[in-house]
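Q: Got a minute? One more chain.
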Amino acid sequence: MVARHLPLTTDLTAVPLPRRPPDRAASGDDQVRHWYENELGWPTVPASTPESPVRLRLGLRFDVLDVPVEAGRAALRHLAGESPVALRGDRMRLLVAAGSAEELPGLLDWLEWGALALDLRAIGAGGEMRAPLPPEPGVGGLGKARSGRPARPGPGAGGPPVLPSLPGVPEAGGLTPRPRPAEASRTAGDRRPLVPGALQGAAVWLRPPEPGCEVEASLPTVSALGGGGAPDLVRVVNTVATQCHRLRLRRARP
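A: Always. Here it is, folded:
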């Protein structure tokens, strides 16, 4: 029997290239974690799996007031200050000074809201929140209000800061956004998310924190009562509780 030799091919395109392992350093979650830990100095929760979303530790640098987005939207119209505000689905989270969660029950009792079942809670030490995606490069922050530097312009030369907006909530530049057609047609009972990024359960910033600034100096705190500086936590809690109560009454109507 004569051995037959198959011709060797020199066409390298016919040979599949070896698969490269996934580069975690370039993953989106690692970029988000890097932004929070290195740009803001905020501690994150170690990921239990590679697919786990980035989460922020609460009670160390800040606590959050968690309220329905409708109540939070109405409250922001009556509150001064530029502390960060995040959104996820139909919930709004207002960042407040660390330790505020422990003060909330006493504040609600002192303000005579303690006997009512308000859809309002504070999350502090030992709690976590899903990290909102960092704002896109060139999207307006709150630099002028916090650090004296001009706010970064939005898309387009000389444009005003652009942030995710809600109907009736002033943007960082002090402008009230025009309602979009979908917002104008919303009914009182419509509880769909008001921000597109929240449709898939993603957390987004309505007012993003400003890297390089002392974010904690802008957070509502009890120690600011009667003085300047950070917003007064008592006023923030009373305003938010009022709007939560009004929302509760509207939902209870037949």
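A: The helical segments are 28-40, 69-76, 100-110, 143-147, 181-184, 233-252.
Q: Perfect, thanks.
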